[in-house]
Design goal:
Pfam families: HSP20. Belongs to the small heat shock protein (HSP20) family. Keywords: Stress response. It contains one helix and seven strands. It is mainly beta. It has a domain at 38-86 and 96-132: Sandwich (Immunoglobulin-like). Strand 1 and strand 2 (52-58) form a beta hairpin. The longest helix has 13 residues, at 18-30.
Length: 146
C-alpha cells in the first residue's frame, strides 16, 4: 500500500492511481500558473536616514512599466504584476519556484515628508523609492509632566 499525503484541494483518492495523482499534480502546477502561484509578494527593505526614508523592493525580472506607485491619505502604495511567460514550443518546466502574479504593498508614512519630492528608480531588479523628510515639520517633541 502506498501512502499519499492528504491534500484537501485534490478530489477523493478513491479509485485513483498514484500515477494519475502525480500527473494531475504536475499538470496543474507547472503547465500554466496554478492558483498557488497567482500571488506575488516581493521582499521590501525600509531604511531611514536624517534626510529621507528609502524603500527598496526586490522584483527581478520586471520592467519599470510593470509598477504603479500611488500616494493617498499619508500612505504610499506600490503595486504591479510579474507575468509568467511560457513558450510552449521551447521548454517543459519541471519546477517553478519563482513567484508570479500581482502584488500590492501599502506603507503608512509619517507627517514630516515632502510628498512632491518623492523619487523612484528601477535598476538591476530593485525598485528604489526615496521619500525626503521635511525639516520644517518636527515630529519629536518633549512633553512636560505636570
Amino acid at each position: 500500500m502506498t501512502l499519499i499525503k492528504y491534500n484537501p484541494s485534490l478530489p477523493s483518492t478513491e479509485n485513483k492511481s498514484f500515477s494519475s495523482l502525480l500527473d494531475r499534480f504536475f499538470n496543474e502546477s507547472f503547465n500554466g500558473i496554478g492558483k498557488e502561484m497567482q500571488h506575488f509578494a516581493p521582499q521590501v527593505d525600509i531604511a531611514e536616514s536624517k534626510k529621507a526614508f528609502e524603500i527598496s523592493v526586490a522584483a527581478p525580472g520586471m520592467k519599470k512599466s510593470d509598477f504603479n506607485i500611488d500616494m493617498s491619505d499619508g500612505a504610499i502604495t506600490i503595486s504591479g504584476e510579474r507575468k509568467f511567460e511560457e513558450k510552449k514550443d521551447e521548454k517543459n518546466y519541471h519546477s517553478v519556484e519563482t513567484q508570479y502574479g500581482s502584488f500590492s504593498r501599502t506603507f503608512h508614512l509619517p507627517d514630516n515628508i515632502k510628498e512632491d519630492k518623492i523619487e523612484a528608480s528601477y535598476q538591476d531588479g530593485i525598485l528604489n523609492i526615496v521619500i525626503p523628510k521635511d525639516e520644517q515639520k518636527e515630529l519629536k517633541r518633549t512633553i512636560q509632566i505636570k
